[in-house]
Amino acid sequence: MLRKLMLRMAAAILLVAPALTAAKANELFLYNWSNYFPPDLIETFEKDTGIKVTLDTYASNDDLLAKLQAGAAGYDVAFPSDYMVEIMINDGLLQKIDAASMPNFKNVAAPHDAPYYDPERAYSAPYMWGTTGLAYDASRIDAELAHTWKEFFEPRDGLKGQIAALNSQAEMYSAAAYYLGIDDCTEDPAEAQKILDLLKAQKPHLAMYSSTGTIDRMIAGEVVMHHMWNGAAHRVKKEKPSVIYLYPQEGVPFWADNMVVPKDAPNVDNAKTFINWMLDPKNAAAASNYTGYMNALNGSSQYLNETLKADPAVNMPPEFGQRLVMSPSCSTKARELRDKVWTSLKN
């Protein structure tokens, strides 16, 4: 009797197992920056593929790294920035996806097809790219601000207490380093101390550190200036034409975000399907139109909104081209100095 019962239970499990497998086969879990993927594009992907998407968000590369290092499982596609891709590869947090062999990879434009952090595109594929500068509402200050980090770190009286900074170690550290003329991958404790001193001197003049809600904050007029990404500035300007985006002369961080598959991703095939789908110029352009950032694909311009093409915050004026500085790949010693500076600043 017991043997018959066990056989019946085994048969029941076999009947249920395909259904469970099928359910899992139709799922995809994205882990992305907040407000960085158009909801209607998710709906389009679901209709095109039959794969159900769940989206969770984070506020910084550091948050993403900490989550994966802590063993978080369940995410199929994440969106780290350039230097973070290399860190995650070296830490064994990603699995190879051989993006360069995907059918739609032919659309990827140089130099995004072979970046320094993943030259073979074995672990990653491009998503959006942009810059990090300063946006301010010209209607709220009786002066035209200069393209310099001085406006941010040594603000004039009309800006004190009316500035928001990104809550990002990498962005704040690099901006301070550029302003001081220091290599942002410095391994010299004395130079790191100068960066810390500048950040601490600036802190009383800030309204807050925040990497979320930047768009709504500027539109609502909660601050006059925001340290922000150019795509966010573009989205603010659509609601507030008086907003101007600055390209500081000392150096402007130039970054590229990517799509990767964490090592413990439960739905790898679906992740690859999604990444290849996003390498279609029409889909990438839809993401650009929503985020306000440029994508890395040839053939996408025909699908871009005219306002996106016309905004100097997105299509940078040629005279500012020499100011771009690619996010670096720093040594372990340099990253440890950064961590110490940031911890000291925030304590």
Written overview of the protein:
With 347 residues, this protein is an alpha/beta fold. 41% of the residues lie in helices and 17% in strands. The chain contains 13 helices and eleven strands. The strands form two sheets. Strands 4, 5, 6, 7, 8, 9, 10 and 11 form an eight-stranded mixed β-sheet that branches. A three-stranded parallel β-sheet has the order 2-1-3. β1 (27-33), α2 (39-49) and β2 form a beta-alpha-beta unit. The N and C termini lie far apart (67 Å).
Describe the protein's topology.
Layout: H1 2-25, E1 27-33, H2 39-49, E2 52-58, H3 61-69, E3 77-78, H4 82-90, E4 124-137, H5 150-153, E5 163-165, H6 169-180, H7 189-202, E6 206-209, H8 214-220, E7 225-229, H9 230-239, E8 243-246, E9 252-260, H10 268-278, H11 281-291, E10 294-295, H12 306-310, E11 324-326, H13 332-346
Parallel strand pairs: 1-2, 1-3, 5-6, 5-7, 9-11
Antiparallel strand pairs: 4-7, 4-8, 4-9, 4-10
Helix pairs in contact: 6-7, 7-13, 8-9
